[in-house]
Structure formats: C-alpha cells, structure tokens
C-alpha cells in the first residue's frame, strides 16, 4: 500500500481524477479499441475487485473506488470511500474529496481538503486550491498555490499561473509559464504564446531580426495549437501561410478550423476559393460563416449577388453584415443605392457608416455632397476621412483647395496623399515642384507617379530628362541607330498608354534616327486619337515619302483642328496645283491660326495669290 502516493491526476475539467495506473492516453485508447459492452464488463469487474480489496482494508483501493464512483456521478457512494482513504492519509483521496465537495457546492470545505493534499505534495490539489483562491479574488494566495503546482510540472497550473501573471501585468513571468504549459502539450497555452510572439513581431520593424525570429516561433506554436485541434490556432496558421503564398496548405488549415465552427476561417476559405475561380464553393462557406454571424462573409455574399444583378438579395446580406456590427455593410448599401441612382438613400447609408468611423464612407459621402453643390458640407467629411488615413480623401482635399486657388493648402494634401502612394497626387506635387523650379524634387515625384502608371507623369518626366541631355549627333544613312536613352523609354511608356503628345514625341525621335516606319506608326496613332500635331507630322512624313495626296488628307484634318502650319501647307499645295481660290482660303485660315511666323508667311502667300486672281 502506497500511502500518500501520487496516484491521480486531474481530468481536463480540472476537477475529476482518473483511476490509478491508467493514463488519459491509455484510457482513451482502450475505449476506442473496445466495444461498449466489453468496457462496461471490464468496469464492473474492476469495481468488484476494488470492493473486495476495500473490504480487506486496502486504502489505495478505497481511493481508486471513490474516484471511479465520483467519475460516474455517484457522489454519495464516492464520499464514504474517499473520506475513509483520506483518514488513512491518502493524498489523492483528499484531492478527490475536495473535488466532490466542490461539485456539491461546499467550496470552503473542499479548499480545506485540497490544502491537506497540497501540503502533502499533490500538484493537482495545489492547482485546484489556486483556482479556488483566484475565484475568490485572493490573487496572492492563488499565485502561491498555482506556483507550487506548476513547479511540480502540473500543466494546468502552469497555464493558470501564466494567465494570472498576465492579468497582473507580469508579462515576462506570464510568458515563461505559458511556454512551460505549451511545451507540455497545453493547446490554449500554445495558441496564446503564439499570439504574444505575433504581436511582438508586429510591433517591431519589418526587417528587424528579432521580429523575424518572433514571427517564426509564433508560426511554430500556432502549428502546434492547430495540430492539437485549436480552431483559432488553425485560423491564424492559415492566414500566415496564405500571406506567404502557400495557398494549398493555408486552405487545409482554414478548412480544419471552419469545420470546427470558426466563422472567420470559413470566410477566409471562401475568399481563397473565390480567388481560385470557384465562386459556388466560396458562396457555400460564406453562407456558413454569415449564418454564424460573420459580417465580412455577409458582405462578400452581398457583393457576389450584386455582381450577378441580384440587388435585393445583395441588400439583404449587406443588412445582415450591418446587423453583425460590420460598418462595411452600411457602406456597401450606400454604394448599391448610388449605382441605382437612389442618391438620398445612398447618402443615408454613407452617413451611417461615416458616423461609425468608416473612412471610405466619409470620402464617398463628401463626393456625393460635392456633386450636389454642397462644398461646405463635403469638406469636413473629406477631412475626417483623410485624417483617418484615406488616401483618396487627402487627394480630393487637394483638388478642393486647388479649385479655390489655395495652392499652398492643396499642395499640403497632395504631398500627404503622394507619401501614401497616390499616383495622381505625386503627379500634382511633381508639377508644383517644376513650377517652383525645383527640378530634382520634381523628378523624384514624377518618377513615383510614372512608376505608378501615370502616362502624364511619364511624359513630363521624359520632358525633364530630355531637356538635360546633350543634342544627339546628326544621323547618317547606313549608320546604326543609337541606343534609346532613358527619356525615350519614358516617352514610349507614356505613348503606349495612349498619351498623344508622347506619341508625337516618340515619332519625332524615331524620325530623327531614320526609322520612318516607326515614326509613321506613332504619328498615325496620335493623329487617329485626335492630335493635330500628330496629323501634321504624319503629313510631312508622307509628303517626303512621295505620298502627297495622303499627306493632304492629314494636313486637312490638322488644319480643321486649328493647326496653322497645316493650313499653310495646304495653301502651298493648292497654289502649286493652280487652285488659287482654294490656296487663298487656306492662307486666310493660316493667318488667323498663327503663330506669328506662320501668319506672316501665309499673308505674303495670300497677297501673291490675290494678285494672280486679280491679274
């Protein structure tokens, strides 16, 4: 007989004991291997054996039988055996007697027996006693007993101690014991440790080595928690993997978490499936998440139905998102109403989301008010959105102030939007720097805007670089064309995006290096898009190549669009053909269109034609 032996451990509830000599892993394994009838027979045989041993005065049998009856819910039968074993000095019985009394509502008496068992060295009893004192608000006593238990290796006590220390602001102590519990297989501890490390990584600079190490360790603990069935651990692990581009594994963990009832995982899984092109499966998971109260999933369903033109269903899901506390629901309702021309209702929903702090709704509301002519009402909402971090709102404030002639204030907001990566704002700042003569700063902002896809910025950047480069040597026929400079590359980027002035400039550069075909292609693109300079230059190129009739067609188009030189060319062609009246008409137009140099030449030609007509 092993008096006061460490014969029992607490179950996951922290209150019940197992029979001696059988670990929880072995017990569950046996239960899975045997059918219910065999298990019942084994338990009955074990109980008979224990009762015979109890009749013979075996204290250990009294303790184990009391634990068995306690687990079965036979409190009356268990109490007598546990009291008898406790009187004989069995600490496991003292611990389980405390459990029984606690279940019956006698917390103080239970604490007394737990104290006896804890003093005798029971880690389980010390844990239970620590939990008891914490429930009573006696944190110093709770810490003492939880520490006693945790230092003996009790995993639940280590977790409870970590939780208590964290509550009291002892972060280092909390992390130490949380780590101890996690290392012994406590899945909630593994998850909470991962969250601590994750936050630490997020608070440090992205390239910081300590942040990288913390993020890597956080992932390991998320993985351990997830592997032990922690659904939020699986959710966070999936998010890490998705961010890293490991979508297949991310989907597996989202699926595991979603099947365990985690709505956010079901929502995330839906987005993964949508991005993979499987919208039908995505809708199934979004529906499941939305029905569990996930506002993001409800919004996704609303957007899906809106894309299909099912506006009533979309509106229903947006309202569901709003009811779930997601302000995006109100914002999306505003967008839906605005698309349908229901401006008053759109304003109502935008206001609801904006008052809740939704920055994009604030920006949308301001735009709505501005279009209605209420500039004074729009400005505060633009400001609120911009202060909350809306880049578009900052840019819109710049436009608002520029429209009033408040250039300094406009530039301030443009700079703010440009710093956040707004392409058009960077273009405006670059142009302002050019006006101020600060070419270096202008170049920096124009490069940002051009790199962001602005054709106008690419053209203006090319113009800045073009003005700096030395004049190219004259190109001789038969010589290889020189390599393209950086400014030519920017001109071409702008031209390929449809920028007409850039297309004309690229054509000119191609013509200068003798590439007539490329020059004609760019001139034609510009001309067909409405560029009068493109049409005029294309005419010049065609005339030089001997295609004067086609050249006249393009010069006519340029002259009709107000190009004086094209009108003068037409006057010269008409004069050469002997069409004096036609020549005089084009010369008159060239005089009126200018510029001065062209006007003077056209006037002389007109006078000469007039003399010919009157002769």
Number of strands: 0
Taking the alpha carbons of the first and last residues, their distance comes to 144 Å
SS element count, helices = 35
* Major beta sheet summary: none
Which secondary-structure class do the elements indicate? mainly alpha
Q: What would you call the shape?
A: elongated
From the alpha-carbon coordinates, what is the Rg to the nearest angstrom?
Answer: 41 Å
What can you tell me about this protein's structure?
The chain has 615 residues and is an all-alpha fold. The chain is 78% helix and 0% strand. It is built from 35 helices and no strands. Helix 7 packs parallel to helix 9. The longest helix is centred in the first third of the chain and has 20 residues, at 36-55.
Keywords:
single chain, mainly alpha, 615 residues, elongated
Write the layout of secondary structure elements.
Elements: H1 24-33, H2 36-55, H3 59-72, H4 75-87, H5 91-103, H6 107-119, H7 123-136, H8 139-151, H9 155-167, H10 171-183, H11 187-203, H12 209-227, H13 231-244, H14 247-259, H15 263-275, H16 279-291, H17 295-307, H18 311-323, H19 328-339, H20 343-355, H21 359-371, H22 375-387, H23 391-403, H24 407-419, H25 423-436, H26 439-451, H27 455-468, H28 486-496, H29 500-512, H30 516-528, H31 532-544, H32 548-560, H33 564-576, H34 580-593, H35 596-614
